[in-house]
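To whoever is on call:

I kicked off a structure prediction for a single chain this morning and the downstream step that reads the tokens threw a length-mismatch warning. I double-checked the sequence; it's 73 residues and nothing unusual in it as far as I can see. Pasting both halves so you can look.
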Amino acid sequence: MSAIINVPARAGQLAQPKRLFGDYSRYAIAPVYTRFDAVEWFVWDAEVPEPRTGLASVIRQEATEESALYGLI
């Protein structure tokens, strides 16, 4: 997989579409643009809703995809 170039002007937006994984597609992972040097990998958990919105909560934010997935697959 090629490196994803960060675009600080797009901070907070997905750099690629979310990919679902886990039993019954419980989790989603995607790189997100940041205002810093590199994209960050976010993992969402559909079984842990965000209290204010009821949407899936972010349970991890890591510098690499491998570290974001560690222990989940």
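Update from on-call: the warning came from a stale cache, not from the record. Cleared it. Sanity check on the structure: Residues 22 and 29 are 11 Å apart (CA to CA).
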